[in-house]
Amino acid sequence: MQIKLFLVLIPVMLFSFQSVAQGDLLITPKRVVFEGNKQKEELNLVNIGQDTAIYAISFLHYNMTEDGNFIVIEKPDSGQMFATPYLRIFPRRVTLAPREPQVISLQVRRKADMAAGEYRSHLYFRAEKDNKPLGMANTIQDTTQLQVQLIPIFGLSIPIIIRTGAVNVNATLTNLKMELQQDTIPCLKFTINRTGNISIYGDVAVMYFPEKGNSYQVGSVMGIGVYTNITKRNVTIKLNTKPGTTLTNGKLKVQYLNNNENKKTEVYAEGELELKQ
Question: Are residues 38 and 120 in the same domain?
Fold first, then answer.
């Protein structure tokens, strides 16, 4: 008798994104920063799908690359500090019916001997599925076929940051350059440079100032961070022009701004690029 073989492949999708959603899970807020006297935070989860879902909650650690990608790491690099030893979270596993909300409690416990600076880990929400292969409960039949069942497992992570002691951060914008992608799409490339002992996080806005006429916004990107394991990040922004116009004979002004709606707008850094025909 030949046995029908069931092979289960489980691709894990991980996304790092106030609200953020992936799959059927909506999370608010999308990042948490403990600074000053702040000790607690509540995360609001909502199942926006049509089926009951189970999520396991754990921690992961990442390094950011200069192009903004993330690499999973097990041990901190020199000068890098994880937040997990100082964090408590409850519950660690939730079951959500369709449209059902759930509050997750997150607490930080600082210690007197903590070095000044920033501690970062990422809270990871992993959807759990019933991974039992289809047909395992049925009678085995003679076959030579190999059947593959793909079961997607969705995951989502948000950064959890603790800041303690004397902290500081500064940013500058350099290497501003405009290029055409696919010969037709204008894009602005530049580098965000970070100094200090904490990360920086904000939005980028690009304004076009023509030689004649009024200025207008041609590009923006929300939520660009430069974490403490790197000192610079390369950014590319697609620019949108008014119909029938081109970005020539003027200048581009780029601003890197804080995106905290509870604080006064602050310009972290800015730069200009002269445009010639």
Answer: yes
